[in-house]
Design goal:
Blueprint: H1 19-35, H2 43-99, H3 104-109, H4 115-118, H5 122-138, H6 145-200, H7 208-211, H8 214-217, E1 228-232, E2 237-241, E3 250-255, E4 261-266, E5 278-280, E6 285-289, E7 300-305, E8 312-318
Antiparallel strand pairs: 1-8, 2-7, 3-6, 3-8, 4-5, 4-7
């Protein structure tokens, strides 16, 4: 039976199509539109698609540049933490030499021993640096100027670098959202193009190849009917889909192995609760409505192989 609702589906809104693939496919689609626009009849959708494509590319590039800067900033933060720990260990001897290991001054510097510093993390690094800076200044008449200056600089420099890193991380969250919005805009434009081209060529499905290269968008494991084959390692969990699920989305799953598979929809990857998930027996085929598998707002259609030794193989189709 033909489900006419599929005509309204956003076929590009799927986790199986990466941002890079959307970019590549849209670029190819634009070239094909341009090549077949001799009489100008495609000018309107060509212009709209070009604008959406440029917006998407700009969003991806901006996100990528920010992420690269964030990674570089993370390396700087990690480097200064390493240096700080090494110098605390190095100058512990100076504190011990000046005040004695059992003195109140030594306890001020190392109330929990050196391990508090060697095991520090980003969550308490700022506090420990402030402590070292404050105590070095407090006993600056006894400790060397080199030590006092060193730990004063750590306190200032770390705060600056960590603030920058957190800002890049915050920016990345915003930029990912911008990329997702720009991608949706481009996806919907390509869907409109698909429907407009189809309307002008009813009864001639092969014309699709003139305007789209399906091999770009189709996952490597996809079959001609749109179904996808997937393997799940013993005790493993895979994400089958995490975009575009609606309450009435139809999901067909065929277990092609001797392993038992559980499927459900969750708020994150890697999660399948076998107590509530749908069970698919070996060599069984089941059809679901997405709402039967969980809250589609979660978005992650996950599958778990409960076998400890068998690799699970399944074939699924999401419509």
């Amino acid at each position: 039976m033909i489900d006419l609702r599929n005509l309204f589906k956003n076929y590009f809104d799927t986790a199986k199509i990466s941002d890079d693939t959307v970019r590549k496919g849209a670029k190819d689609h634009l070239a094909r539109l341009n090549a077949n626009n001799q009489n100008g009849n495609l000018r309107a959708i060509l212009n709209d698609t070009q604008a959406a494509y440029r917006e998407f590319c700009a969003a991806i590039d901006t996100e990528d540049q920010n992420f690269a800067t964030q990674q570089a900033s993370t390396l700087e933060v990690d480097a200064i933490l390493d240096e700080f720990k090494k110098n605390v260990s190095r100058y512990e001897g100076a504190v011990r030499s000046e005040f004695g290991i059992g003195s109140k001054e030594y306890q001020e510097f190392f109330p929990q021993g050196q391990s508090e510093y060697t095991l520090l993390s980003k969550s308490n690094a700022e506090m420990l640096m402030e402590r070292m800076d404050a105590l070095c200044r407090k006993y600056s008449g006894t400790l060397s100027n080199t030590m006092v200056t060193l730990f004063a600089n750590y306190n200032v420099n770390y705060e600056t670098l960590r603030t920058q890193q957190l800002q890049y991380m915050a920016n990345n969250t915003v930029l990912k959202s911008n990329t997702a919005k720009a991608r949706t805009k481009l996806e919907l434009q390509m869907c409109k193009n698909l429907l407009l081209i189809a309307a002008e060529n009813v009864g001639n499905p092969n014309i699709l190849n003139t305007y789209f290269d399906q091999s770009i968008f189709r996952p490597n494991k996809a079959k001609d009917d749109g179904s996808i084959e997937e393997e799940i390692s013993p005790s493993g969990v895979v994400v089958l889909e995490n975009k575009g699920l609606r309450e009435d989305t139809e999901i067909t799953i065929k277990n092609k192995s001797a392993a038992i598979i559980y499927v459900g929809i969750y708020a994150s990857a890697g999660v399948v609760d076998t107590a509530t998930a749908a069970k698919i027996e070996p060599n069984d085929k089941r059809k679901f409505i997405a709402s039967e598998l969980g809250d589609v707002a979660g978005g992650f259609l996950n599958a778990r192989n409960v076998s400890l030794s068998e690799t699970a193989r399944l074939e699924y189709l999401v419509l």
